[in-house]
Structures are given as structure tokens and as C-alpha cells.
Amino acid sequence: MAKNPGKGYPFHAKTIALAALPFMGMISFWQVFDGLVPEILVGTFGLSHTVTGVVMALDNIFGLFLLPWFGIMSDHCRSAMGRRTPFILIGSVAAAIAVPCIAVANHVRSLAFLMAAIIATLIAVCAYRTCTVAVVADITPRPLRAKADSVEKIVGYAGTGVMLVAIALLVPDVEHPNYLPIFLLQGAVILIAALLYRSFVDEPASVALMHRESAAMGIPEDEMDAEADDERHGGKERIADPDVRRSMIFLMLTVFFYYMSYNGMTTNISRYAGDFFSMGGGSYAIINITTIAGALASYVPVANLSLKYGRKRVALITGLIMAVCPIAIWLAPGFHPALYGVFLLMGVGLGAVDICVYPMILENCSANSIGRYAGYYYTVSMAAQVVTPILSGAIMDVAEKQLFLYIAVMGVAMIAALLQARHGDSITVDEVEARLAE
């Protein structure tokens, strides 16, 4: 039995980390957007929590249509730079320009300008969001995708942690803060991440290397790609299998309830922390930093465990944490430093489930349809995030204390869906190493 999963075969962590930089720029933006835009809508423009939830759901409404569309478009792209790179570069530049306009609109107190800036930003981010995760899967052999996802998440959430620290430092505890410095910084992060990616990652060469390494593992990705171009084969033949299709449905439901739970917290934590934990200004970001720290600490060991014992088993065990931790927060009479430990554990659960379930979905599709199914993954997550800001916002208006009970119920529903999925585990590390040894 392998004591260190992944040690016996090539894993290009540096290349994957560099390929994950656009993901870092994109994912760090959502902490700024989800945390500060509700404060702008309520504090500057006086909107109710419910109306604020509707505005916050716009990105998810756009994502329902744009994310799979851009994913499919990238699958069919035959640029010399690769399939995903053109979308990453164009979308990043557009987002870097649009993001600071949100703060400018708040400063001049123009709701129309604010809505225009939000819409422009969300469209720009949608243009490359799917590609940031698809490109990492493109350059990674199937058995190693959970491990690659762990590297991508570490890079992404390390950048997110930096932005949360910046929020805590740059957003003062005053009635009407100046948000321009933090939004300018976020735009710069998005742009610099994309430029570094372009400078150090050759997408076509990395994909070709993945094909050679997959062949050595007994996984003929080239043949799968060839079949995918044939209308009789490709991902269609596998998804047509009723058992696989049923598993895909339940995996998508798992993603749906995961984001119902996760986004229910991220969208409302700034207001909840202010009302129940007496955290003003950007100090609520300490909670998010703690949660992300838990996720970062878990990614590598969880990825190795999934290689050894299977993705589903690890996701189920860590999913229990997602359901139990919110109950502890819900029952807490007020803030206590021990709650930071609960948020840390919750981050472990959030990170572990995410890096296991997404590769399970991609395991059921061909290499030529990764963009499509990455888009479907995001479509389902967006559908959840259309519903949960509105529903959780209504709970915040009617019974604010029940927010974390709602988050726990969504976690239980996620576990129930995942239990029904029967497909998506890759071959284990021992099988891979045995094939390489041959």
C-alpha cells in the first residue's frame, strides 16, 4: 500500500499552481463582492435585506446561462493559445476595468451607475469563470484531478485570504466607508493573475503532456477525445448509461445543496456578525479568514485521502462537518472565541466536499467536454445561489437568528444527495502506481 499517495507518479504542482492564478483572481473577487456590495446596498442606498438578496442573486442568474455557454464555446475554441486562455485573458481585462466602478458608483451615490457596474462586472467574470477550473482539469490526468483541485484551491483561497485581510485593514468602521481602495486592489489582483498565467503557462504544451502521462497510466485520453468527436461516442455514450446519468443527477443535486449552504453563509455573514457578534466595519472578515484557513489546511491531506480511499467516502465524512458546525453556531447565545474553532472546522468541511465532488462530475465526461460539464457544474451552483440569497435574506428579515439552522439543513440535504451517487470515483492510487510499474 502506498504511504504517500501520488509519490510514485508525476504531479506537476508548479504548473498547476500557475494555471490556477486566474482562478485566484476570480474567486478572491467574490469575497469582496459578497461581503461589501450588500453593505453598499443597505448602508448607502437603504435597500431592504430581501431586495439586497435579489440584487446579490444577479450574478447567479447570469451564470445560469452564460457559464455553460462560455464553457461550450471554449470546448470548441481552436486558438493557438489553447481552448481556455483567450477567454481567461479577455474576461480578466474586462473585469479589472469594471470592478473599481462599483466603488466609484457608491462614492457618487448613483444607484443606476452601481447597477450598471455590477452587471458589467458579472458578465466579464462569467466570460472566463468556467475556463479557470476547466484549464486545470485539461492539463491533469483523471486520477490526479482531486489533487490538482487541491492545489488550485490553495492558490485561489490563499489569494482570497489576502483580500480578506485587505478588507479588514482598508474598510474602516465608519458609517459610510470609502470602498475605492479595496476595489482598486481587487481589479489589480485579477489583472496581474491573468498576466502571470499567460507568461508562465503554455496551455497546448501542458495538455499534450497530460495525454502522454495518461497513456502511461493506461488511460487513453487521445482515444477518448477521438470518440468524443464522433456523434456515436464521446461523453454521450457514457452519460446515456442510466446508472451513470442517475449518479450525475445526484452529484449535481449535491452541488446544488452545497452552494445553498455555503452561499447562505457568505452572503449574510457580514450582517449576521454585525448584529449578533458586534463586529463592525470589515472585522467580520476575520470569520471568513478563519474558515478559509481551515479549508487551506485540509486540501492536501483530503486530496491524498481521496486518492487512497475514494472521493465519495471522504466527501461524505467531511460533509458531516458542514452539517454539524452550523448547529453549534446556531445554538451559541452570542460570540465567544471558541466559535473561531467551529468556523475553522466548517472550512475543513467546505473545502473537502468541494475538491471531491467536482472531479466526480468530470470523471463521467470525455476530455473534449470538460468545459461543457464544468459549465453545468457552475450552472447548478448558480441556480442554488439564485435561490439562497433571496431565501436566506428573507430569513434574515423575519428571523435573523435562524440563519445557521438554515445552513445546517442545506448541509443535511447535500449529504442525502451524495449518498445516492454511485459513479465518479477514479481508479485508486495503488492501481495507478501498479500500471506505471508495468
Radius of gyration based on Cα positions: 21 Å
* Fraction of residues in helix: over 70%
Provide the CATH topology. Answer: Growth Hormone, Chain: A
User: Average pLDDT value?
Assistant: 84
N- and C-termini, Cα separation: 16 Å
Q: Helix and strand string, N-terminal first?
A: HHHHHHHHHHHHHHHHHH
SS elements, strand count: 0
Give the CA-based shape.
globular
CATH superfamily: MFS general substrate transporter like domains
Treating each run of at least 4 consecutive H or I residues as one helix, how many helices?
18
Number of domains: 1
Q: By helix and strand content, what is the structural category?
A: mainly alpha
Second-tier CATH architecture: Up-down Bundle
- Main sheet overview: none
Write up what this structure looks like.
With 438 residues, this protein is mainly alpha-helical. It has a single domain (13-204, 241-431), classed as MFS general substrate transporter like domains (Growth Hormone, Chain: A, Up-down Bundle). It is 79% helix and 0% strand. The protein has 18 helices and no strands. It has helices spanning 13-19, 21-44, 49-56, 58-76, 85-108, 111-138, 145-170, 180-200, 203-216, 221-228, 235-239, 242-276, 285-309, 311-331, 338-362, 370-398, 403-419, 429-437. The longest helix has 35 residues, at 242-276. The protein is globular and about 65 Å long. The model is unreliable at 1-6 and 225-238 (pLDDT under 50).
